[in-house]
Amino acid sequence: MLAALTAAGAPADVLTAAGANAAVEPFEVFEENWETVKAFLELETCWTWLVPAMGRPIRSGIAASEIRATLEVLLPSGADLRQTFLDIRAMERAALEVFLEQA
């Protein structure tokens, strides 16, 4: 994200804030979940945003079509597309809770 902000010419205070938010602790991902996590991370630019007339923009989720297209490209043949879709939706719900807490 920092690279994208820098390329877009973001001001120094925005870059500093983004850098502070990027400093998170590493976490373990079980091997059987790795493909799902990779797909979820690839969807980082696909969030739908709501921009109210007054107030800050908020994320509302990821379009199902974006998830499906990403899974069709990334998952190995024979992978359970339906279950992975549901797993990503669960990750999306958890992420939305965190985003709302940070707002």
From TrEMBL:
It comes from the Bacteria. This is DUF1799 domain-containing protein. The lineage of its organism: Bacteria, Pseudomonadati, Pseudomonadota, Betaproteobacteria, Burkholderiales.
